[in-house]
Specification:
By secondary structure, this protein is mainly beta. Strands 1-3-4-7-5 form a 5-stranded mixed β-barrel.
């Protein structure tokens, strides 16, 4: 059996790195993907899907060092189901509405933004980059 998920989006906040008990580095990131379309009534709709990404080892250290909130990334990995529900992690936003995030264990992370950690990043090499996530209070973690 085999599964792979590929997600291109923007970080909703700065990555957070910690070390597992065995000494392995692990970095957690929140990645938002945005989809824009026009509904049947002619209204513009913006749909955001959140992914919680865990990156391990040397790649975790690199992600923590060079990525920041708003950075565009392409993540390849495997989808992890919530042990309680068998699906995405369900949460309640500050405004009382429900949302969901999906868990990904990354196999590779490609940086799509250029620039240093303290500089403004833009699209590199003509890559299509999604819009940055909307407001920070809707970040599920």
């Amino acid at each position: 059996m085999y599964q792979k998920i590929i997600v291109a989006g923007n970080l909703g906040k700065d990555p957070e790195m910690r070390y597992a008990p065995n000494g392995d580095a692990v970095t957690s990131m929140s990645v938002a993907t945005n989809r824009k379309y026009t509904d049947k009534a002619g209204q513009a709709v913006k749909e955001t899907t959140w992914f919680r990404v865990s990156v391990w080892g040397k790649q975790a250290e690199t992600c923590n060092q060079y990525l920041k909130k708003g950075s565009a990334v392409l993540v390849e990995g495997r989808l992890q189901a919530d042990k309680a529900t068998g699906g995405p992690r369900i949460f309640q936003r500050n405004d009382g509405t429900n949302g969901a995030s999906f868990e990904i264990t990354a196999e590779s992370v490609r940086f799509l933004s250029s620039g240093q950690r303290d500089g403004e990043g833009g699209a590199s090499g003509g890559q299509a980059v999604h819009d940055a996530p909307a407001d920070e209070e809707n970040i599920p973690f």
